[in-house]
């Protein structure tokens, strides 16, 4: 008799437990659906004056889910037609700089409901083989979006590749160009660190940073070393200014984006003529990772890949001093051209 009572009690507890779990799941789903069904807000046109266009922000968030389903082949052509999906050429491009924080910037801008990002680096304008495939090939590499959204892609090699400014100009002479930079010496060491890690994965040896950055014959900075050349920002920018006015560029402080991302993102929103939608709610500091992660809603969070934020090797302080002294006049000219002074030593 006692055994039957215990079995009956266990069965009741299992039923109650199942009901509790089911109720919890229902509440989570309900909160998510209520979040999606909140009254929608109008936003301004992509690059026009206020009030020229209206677009449902919550619908854009839903759209991202629909686009994901479409990419997986789970949406019918009728659904796609119903929602007026298009593949648009980018209205803004993050053209560089390598190891400046281009991926972080792209992912953070994707928090904005009027922005759709190209997930992969297309390398259309810097790769002759890809460029020969034509602009229609490039457009088809873009994500599906609403006509009122703006598509953004990033390929850091664009900034330092000679042919790219003219090629982009031929596509769209009024395009918005984003350049994210870090303190030049730090960026060069980060560049070296990424290459070093790749060599180590293949069990290959690699020179120390000091040996690459300093010419052993002259004991001066080795400008033939690509990591050093890339950090001479003003040299590359001058080539772009032959095609685009400085007003079409926006400089993002990559060092500040790491420690204080929201003000930098708000400046980009303003540059792109987007209404302010990214808030502190969307950004939270992950103490384990050591940098900010992204919060899209109460359910979906995202951190950058583990390869981001690599630990740099120790570098001889005298080499760091020499590099900073070398970069200083170029930095001053960069500040003068762009109108933005950065707190670099």
Describe this entry's structure for a reader.
InterPro entries: NST/OST, P-loop_NTPase, Sulfotransferase_dom. Helices cover 45% and strands 11% of the residues. By secondary structure, the chain is of the alpha/beta class. The protein has a single domain (82-336), classed as P-loop containing nucleotide triphosphate hydrolases (Rossmann fold, 3-Layer(aba) Sandwich). The strands form three sheets. Strands 3-5-2-6-7 form a five-stranded parallel sheet. The longest helix has 35 residues, at 2-36. The chain starts with a helix and ends in a 7-residue tail after the last helix. Residues 21-64 and 66-74 have low confidence and may be disordered.
Number of helices: 14
Sheet with the most strands?
A: 5 strands, parallel
- The CATH first-level class comes to Alpha Beta
Name the CATH superfamily classification.
Answer: P-loop containing nucleotide triphosphate hydrolases
Strand count: 10
What is the averaged pLDDT score?
83
Radius of gyration: 25 Å
What's the helical proportion of residues?
40-55%
Write down the secondary-structure element order.
HHHEEHEHHEEHEHHHHEHHEEEH
Going across the major beta sheet, what is the strand order? 3-5-2-6-7
Tell me what the CATH architecture is: 3-Layer(aba) Sandwich
Structural class based on helices, strands and sheet pairing: alpha/beta
Rounded to the nearest angstrom, the distance between the terminal CA atoms is: 83 Å
Shape, please? globular
CATH topology title = Rossmann fold
Beta-strand proportion? 5-15%
> Which stretches are poorly predicted, pLDDT < 50 over at least 5 residues?
21-64, 66-74
Number of domains: 1
């Amino acid at each position: 008799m006692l055994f039957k009572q215990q079995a009956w009690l266990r069965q009741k507890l299992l039923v109650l437990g199942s009901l509790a779990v089911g109720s919890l799941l229902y509440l989570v789903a309900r909160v998510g659906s209520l979040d999606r069904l909140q009254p929608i807000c109008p936003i301004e046109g992509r690059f026009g004056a206020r009030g020229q266009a209206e677009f449902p922000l919550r619908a854009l968030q839903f759209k991202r889910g629909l686009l994901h389903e479409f990419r997986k082949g789970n949406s019918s052509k009728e659904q796609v037609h119903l929602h007026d999906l298009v593949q648009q050429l980018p209205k803004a491009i993050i053209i560089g700089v390598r190891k400046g924080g281009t991926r972080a910037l792209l992912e953070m801008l994707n928090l904005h409901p009027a922005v759709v990002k190209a997930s992969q680096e297309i390398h259309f304008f810097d790769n002759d083989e890809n460029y020969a495939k034509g602009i229609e090939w490039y457009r088809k590499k873009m994500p599906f979006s609403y006509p009122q959204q703006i598509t953004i892609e990033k390929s850091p090699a664009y900034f330092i590749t000679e042919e790219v400014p003219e090629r982009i100009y031929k596509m769209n002479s009024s395009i918005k160009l984003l350049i994210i930079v870090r303190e030049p010496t730090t960026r060069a060491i980060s560049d070296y660190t990424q290459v070093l890690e790749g060599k180590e994965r293949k069990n290959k040896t690699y020179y120390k940073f000091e040996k690459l950055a300093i010419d052993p014959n002259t004991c001066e900075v080795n400008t033939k070393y690509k990591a050093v050349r890339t950090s001479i920002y003003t040299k590359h920018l001058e080539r772009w200014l032959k095609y685009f006015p400085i007003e079409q560029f926006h400089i993002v402080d990559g060092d500040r984006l790491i420690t204080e991302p929201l003000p930098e993102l708000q400046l980009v929103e303003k540059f792109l003529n987007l209404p302010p939608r990214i808030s502190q709610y969307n950004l939270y500091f992950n103490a384990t990772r050591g940098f900010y992660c992204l919060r899209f809603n109460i359910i979906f969070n995202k951190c950058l890949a583990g390869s981001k934020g690599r630990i740099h090797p120790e570098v001889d302080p005298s080499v760091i001093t020499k590099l900073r002294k070398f970069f200083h006049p170029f930095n001053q000219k960069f500040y003068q051209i762009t109108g933005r002074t950065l707190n670099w030593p």
